[in-house]
Amino acid sequence: MRLHEKVSVVTGGGSGIGRAICQRFSKEGSSVIVAEINEETGQETVDLINKDGGSAALVLLDVTDINSVNEMVSETCERFKTIDVLVNNAVAFVMGTVEDASEEDWIRVFKTNVIGYANCIKTVTPVFRKTGGGSIVNIASVSAFIAQPKFVPYNASKGAISQLTRCTALDLASDNIRVNAICPGSIETAGATQVNIDLGLDPVAANKALAEEALMKRMGKPEEIASVALFLASEDASFMTGTHIVVDGGATID
Ligand SMILES: NC(=O)c1ccc[n+]([C@@H]2O[C@H](COP(=O)([O-])OP(=O)(O)OC[C@H]3O[C@@H](n4cnc5c(N)ncnc54)[C@H](O)[C@@H]3O)[C@@H](O)[C@H]2O)c1
């Protein structure tokens, strides 16, 4: 029970990596707030956890809207009294070349992946301060530090999450708030499949090619990101802040 009696907020907890994090945190003793824009999938995650004997609640959230983030934090504190862990995970997958991307595309990807993460950090920080600290896990990507064809807006936003992580770790360390990031490689999720479809690729062939890129010759599972998120969120990582853990089956070592 590495998160015994903790309260964790996971943005985008209705799908893929976010759902796996919600389920793993619950198994480790945390109450979980599934903070999701999609009511149906968010509720599914809550039902899975509660059926399994855990304690979860759905709070509808649009990370791009600071009022929605404020309401999510207020509602969470009313129901669960405090917040100990924030996982920033919600994403807009906006791909394309710099010539393809419209101004609206740039605004959407940065509003969700960068400003959305910052909105949540800004809003939970006063709650963390009141209780003497907290842990923030930002889900970045290997896309933060490698180039991929026709991935410009998404990769630029993930690079920005790296600097958001380092700079907020610096500013919040004196409040005993740790801020770390995970850089997943290719992970089997609904979101990743949709990206391949949007790029005009056959999803089965695309997944096979992605699997070949990893030394382990397979894609990762959402649960394999959840276990690293658990480590960073917990006291096991008590001397870690401002850092990144790459979880990609060795795909980016060379
Ligand atoms: N799947 C991969 O291969 C992969 C690789 C590297 C990094 N990542 C990162 O992992 C994270 C999760 O990715 P995934 O593949 O599980 O995605 P996913 O699309 O399966 O899930 C993302 C969730 O975020 C929610 N969401 C989207 N916009 C939101 C908003 N404005 N407010 C609140 N919730 C919102 C969606 O409804 C969805 O449930 C993302 O940050 C992504 O960049 C994924």
Topology-level CATH name of the largest domain: Rossmann fold
Give the strand line-up of the largest sheet.
3-2-1-4-5-6-7
Class inferred from helices and paired strands: alpha/beta
Low-confidence stretches: none
For the record, the count of structural domains works out to: 2
CATH architecture of the largest domain: 3-Layer(aba) Sandwich
Q: Judging from the principal axes of the Cα atoms, what is the shape?
A: globular
Oligomer: single chain
How many helices? The count is: 8
CATH superfamily assignment of the largest domain?
A: NAD(P)-binding Rossmann-like Domain
Topology as a string of helices (H) and strands (E) = EHEHEHEHEHEHHHE
Distance between the termini: 37 Å
Q: Quick one: biggest sheet?
A: 7 strands, parallel
Please tell me how large the radius of gyration is. 17 Å
The number of E-state strands comes to 7
Report the CATH C-level class of the largest domain. Alpha Beta
